[in-house]
Amino acid sequence: MRLFTFYSYPGTTLSFRGNQENEYFKKIIADIPKEKILTESDGPFATYLEKSLSPLSISETINELSYVWSTTPNETEDIIENNLRVLAKNNKVKLSV
Protein backbone atom coordinates (compact mmCIF):
# COMPACT_ATOMS: atom_id res chain seq x y z
CA MET A 1 0.00 0.00 0.00
CA ARG A 2 1.35 3.43 -0.96
CA LEU A 3 0.75 6.25 1.43
CA PHE A 4 0.18 9.66 -0.14
CA THR A 5 0.91 12.27 2.49
CA PHE A 6 0.52 15.99 1.99
CA TYR A 7 1.07 18.85 4.41
CA SER A 8 -1.32 21.74 4.57
CA TYR A 9 0.20 25.19 4.88
CA PRO A 10 -2.33 27.45 6.64
CA GLY A 11 -2.62 31.17 6.19
CA THR A 12 -2.25 31.63 9.97
CA THR A 13 1.52 31.16 9.60
CA LEU A 14 1.81 34.03 7.13
CA SER A 15 4.55 36.60 7.08
CA PHE A 16 7.80 34.86 7.88
CA ARG A 17 9.77 38.00 7.18
CA GLY A 18 10.54 39.94 10.31
CA ASN A 19 8.47 37.65 12.52
CA GLN A 20 10.73 35.63 14.79
CA GLU A 21 7.90 33.39 15.99
CA ASN A 22 7.16 32.29 12.42
CA GLU A 23 10.82 31.54 11.63
CA TYR A 24 10.01 28.13 13.11
CA PHE A 25 7.36 27.56 10.42
CA LYS A 26 9.74 28.76 7.73
CA LYS A 27 12.23 26.05 8.71
CA ILE A 28 9.52 23.39 8.73
CA ILE A 29 8.20 24.42 5.30
CA ALA A 30 11.74 24.54 3.88
CA ASP A 31 12.34 20.95 5.05
CA ILE A 32 9.17 19.49 3.53
CA PRO A 33 9.43 18.54 -0.17
CA LYS A 34 7.60 21.08 -2.34
CA GLU A 35 5.57 18.32 -3.98
CA LYS A 36 4.01 17.54 -0.59
CA ILE A 37 2.64 20.99 0.27
CA LEU A 38 -0.95 22.22 -0.14
CA THR A 39 -2.43 25.54 0.96
CA GLU A 40 -5.41 26.40 3.11
CA SER A 41 -6.89 29.61 4.44
CA ASP A 42 -8.19 28.55 7.89
CA GLY A 43 -10.90 31.12 7.21
CA PRO A 44 -13.17 32.52 8.27
CA PHE A 45 -12.05 31.54 11.78
CA ALA A 46 -8.42 32.64 11.53
CA THR A 47 -7.26 36.21 11.19
CA TYR A 48 -4.17 37.94 9.86
CA LEU A 49 -3.51 41.62 10.52
CA GLU A 50 -6.95 41.78 12.16
CA LYS A 51 -8.73 40.58 8.99
CA SER A 52 -10.57 37.28 8.63
CA LEU A 53 -8.81 34.91 6.28
CA SER A 54 -10.63 33.37 3.35
CA PRO A 55 -9.75 31.47 0.17
CA LEU A 56 -8.98 34.91 -1.30
CA SER A 57 -6.09 35.08 1.20
CA ILE A 58 -4.28 32.27 -0.59
CA SER A 59 -2.35 34.77 -2.73
CA GLU A 60 -0.55 35.97 0.41
CA THR A 61 0.21 32.37 1.34
CA ILE A 62 1.55 31.78 -2.18
CA ASN A 63 3.79 34.84 -1.82
CA GLU A 64 5.20 33.57 1.47
CA LEU A 65 5.83 30.09 0.05
CA SER A 66 7.56 31.74 -2.91
CA TYR A 67 9.80 33.58 -0.48
CA VAL A 68 10.74 30.37 1.35
CA TRP A 69 11.22 28.34 -1.84
CA SER A 70 12.93 31.10 -3.86
CA THR A 71 10.38 30.67 -6.63
CA THR A 72 8.09 33.10 -8.39
CA PRO A 73 4.44 33.22 -7.29
CA ASN A 74 3.45 31.68 -10.65
CA GLU A 75 5.87 28.80 -10.15
CA THR A 76 4.56 28.30 -6.63
CA GLU A 77 0.95 28.28 -7.85
CA ASP A 78 1.88 25.67 -10.45
CA ILE A 79 3.52 23.49 -7.79
CA ILE A 80 0.50 23.72 -5.47
CA GLU A 81 -1.98 23.08 -8.29
CA ASN A 82 -0.01 20.04 -9.42
CA ASN A 83 0.09 18.74 -5.85
CA LEU A 84 -3.69 19.01 -5.67
CA ARG A 85 -4.04 17.17 -8.97
CA VAL A 86 -1.78 14.35 -7.73
CA LEU A 87 -3.75 14.08 -4.49
CA ALA A 88 -7.06 14.01 -6.36
CA LYS A 89 -5.83 11.46 -8.90
CA ASN A 90 -4.52 9.15 -6.20
CA ASN A 91 -7.85 9.35 -4.41
CA LYS A 92 -9.89 9.03 -7.63
CA VAL A 93 -11.41 12.51 -7.26
CA LYS A 94 -12.34 14.51 -10.33
CA LEU A 95 -11.25 18.17 -10.21
CA SER A 96 -12.43 21.15 -12.16
CA VAL A 97 -9.42 23.38 -11.45
Provide an overview of this structure:
There is one protein chain. The protein is an alpha+beta fold. 43% of the residues lie in helices and 12% in strands. It contains three helices and four strands; from the N terminus they run βαβββαα. The chain has helices spanning 20-31, 58-69, 73-90, and strands at residues 7-10, 37-40, 47-48, 51-52. The strands form two sheets. Strands 1-2 form a two-stranded parallel sheet. A hairpin with a 2-residue loop joins strand 3 (47-48) and strand 4 (51-52). It starts with 6 loop residues before the first strand and ends in a 7-residue tail after the last helix.
Largest sheet: 2 strands, parallel
Question: What form results from the Cα inertia axes?
Answer: globular
Structural class: alpha+beta
Q: Report the radius of gyration as a whole number of Å.
A: 14 Å
The number of helices is: 3
Give helix % range: 40-55%
**Low-confidence residue ranges:** none
Quote the average pLDDT.
76
Alpha carbon gap, first and last residue: 28 Å
Instruction: List the helices and strands in order.
Output: EHEEEHH
* Count of beta strands: 4
Physical arrangement of strands within the biggest beta sheet: 1-2
* Fraction of residues in β-strands: 5-15%
Concise synopsis of the structure shown:
The protein is of the alpha+beta class and 97 residues long. Helices cover 43% and strands 12% of the residues.
Tags for this model:
alpha+beta, two-stranded parallel ribbon, two-stranded antiparallel sheet, globular, 97 residues
